[in-house]
Amino acid sequence: MPKNTKIKYKRILLKMSGEGFGGENGKGIETEKFVTFAKTIKNILSLGVEVALVVGGGNVLRGAKLGRTGKSRVVADQVGMIATIVNALLLQDTLEEHNIKAHVISAIDIKNITEPFVLRNCLRYLEEKNIIIFAGGTGNPYFTTDTAAALRAIEINANVMLKATRVDGVFTDDPIKNPSAKLLNKLTYTDVLNQQLGVMDMTAISLSMENKLPIIVLNMNKKGNIEKAVLGKSVGTFIGN
Question: Percent of the chain having pLDDT more than 90?
Fold first, then answer.
C-alpha cells in the first residue's frame, strides 16, 4: 500500500485469537500462520499505524475448558495465561525475523524472557513504531483475554480495538452451525449486552462502553481485512455508540 494512504486509526489494539495460530481445527502451532500474520503487521506498519497486540492461547490450551474438567479454576486460568505467552514469544520471534522490533509485555512476571507492564515504556515503544505484544491476560484468574484487550487498549489510548476471529463478524446466530445466520454490520454496546450476542464477554463490552472504545470484529483469515479496517473501510461488524 502507498505510504501516503490515509488511515482512519493511528493507534490500534489487535486482539488475535489463539486459534488463528493453530491448524484447521484451531489447535496446535502452525509456523506459517505466524509468518502470514507477521506480513500483515508489516503492511499495517508501513501505513504509519502504531500497533499493539493481545494474543489468546486457545490453540495451546484453553483455561476455561480445563477448569470444567474438575481442576481448580484459578490454576486452570493461570495455565491458560501461560499459553498466551507461548504464542506471544513465537510471534515476537517471527516479527523480528521480518525486521520488526517487538516487545512481549506480560502481566505474569517471567524475568529474562518478557517485560513487565509499564505504561510509559509501552507508549514509547508505540511512538518508535515498535510492536507491543501483551500476554498473560490481566494476570488474574476469572478474566478473559477479551477483557485484557479492552483494558490494554484503553490504557494505551488506542483509537480502536480490532477483534480478529474465524468468522466475518457478529451474526444473528452461529454461522458455522446455521448457514442462514445474517451478518450484523453495526451494533451498539447496549445491543451486544441486551441481546447477549457472545461476541465478547460482558466485562470487556462494559469496559469498552464506559470508555468509548470502538470495536471492530472481523475475519482474520480473509486477506486484507485488517488493513481495510485500519483505513476505515467497511469490514466485519462495528460496535460502538
Answer: 71
Residues 235 and 154: their CA atoms lie apart, in Å, by 22
Task: Look at residue 20 and give its three-state secondary structure.
Answer: helix
**Mean per-residue pLDDT for 135-159?**
96
Q: Assign residue 37 a region: left if phi > 0, alpha if psi is -120 to 50, beta otherwise? A: alpha
H/E segment holding residue 16: strand 11-16
Residue 84 to residue 142: CA distance in whole angstroms: 15
Count the helix, strand and coil residues of the chain and give each as a percent rounded to the nearest 5.
Answer: 40, 20, 40
Q: What are phi and psi of 138, to 5 degrees?
A: -90, -5
**At 122, is the secondary structure helix, strand, or coil?**
helix
**Global pTM value:** 0.91
Cell numbers at residue 179, please? 448457514
Specify which residues 115 forms β-bridges with. 105
> Residue 124 CA to chain centroid, in angstroms?
20
What's the CA gap between 12 and 124, in Å, rounded?
Answer: 15
**Short-list 150, 115, 165, 161, CA closest to 135:** 115
At 195 the three-state DSSP class reads: helix
Alpha helices per DSSP H over the chain: 31-46, 63-67, 73-97, 119-127, 145-155, 189-195, 202-210, 225-231
Give CA torsion, residues 70, 74, 80, 84, to 10 deg.
180
Give me the domains of the chain, ranges plus CATH numbers.
11-240 (3.40.1160.10)
Q: What angle do CA 198, 91, 223 make, to 5 degrees?
A: 65
Query: What is the arithmetic mean of pLDDT over 22-49?
Result: 90
C-alpha cell at 121: 515504556
